[in-house]
Amino acid sequence: MSLADYLFAGVLDLPWWGLVIAALALTHVTIAAVTIYLHRCQAHRALDLHPVVAHFFRFWLWLTTGQVTKEWAAVHRKHHARCETPEDPHSPQQVGINRVLWGGVFLYVKECRNQDTLERYGHGTPDDWVERSLYSKYTVLGLILMAVADLVLFGLIPGALIYLVQLVWIPFWAAGVINGIGHYWGYRSWDTPDASRNIVPFGILIGGEELHNNHHAYASSAKLSSKWYELDIGWLYIRTLKALGLAEVKKLAPKPRLAAAKPVVDFETLQAVIHNRYDVLAKYAKSLKKTYA
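^ thats the sequence. predicted structure below, dont judge the formating
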């Protein structure tokens, strides 16, 4: 075996474009695990997952990120509860866009060590034997196993490069881009009290998390797209799991239904307006602009 064969040959003898596809596929599974399991299922309880699916996501995140479910959910819940305030774990409005975009992972790690955050916001997350004895206790072990698997499957140099991509993918796209640009640049569909933005209308690369303003408007919704032209690929995966009997959607953004005009505003109408306040405000602003024009 030549030196080149030793450095580049793995169990899977893939061409360069095959290696690129493999890297994208592996990182996309991680993105799906973050948005479906950590974010929508655990942090916001927008859906329930079949135990097999949920545990696969836990195992995969342990291998590829070393993230602990309780820590991730707690930090994200605190972000919603204290959004854009000095207590927000990662607000670019408070600490600057560059610090969140390029160092968001360090802000996340810092908040993970705050026991008050974990105790107050980390309730309801997995606390079984596997979580306590393996996933939470030996977070680095999963990363080591993933590194070994990449080197064996793809060869030393390609495997090392793919592993590097896997290591930086979530810290950059989730902790940096979503938490940074998602509160700094983009378009707003809803007039939320925070600075959240939809980065682009096509949520594919980051699993639908690009639609960040939609999420902050309806945080407990399992579906992040709200306009006809928006695409949330994470919702497509959830619908597929639901069709297979592997997921149950619990919450979606409300859809206003117009009833006949009433002579007085009763409690039911007031409750409906509050429940659909973002949609009501958006339609009211649109009507004002139309009248003014």
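The chain has a mean pLDDT of 91.
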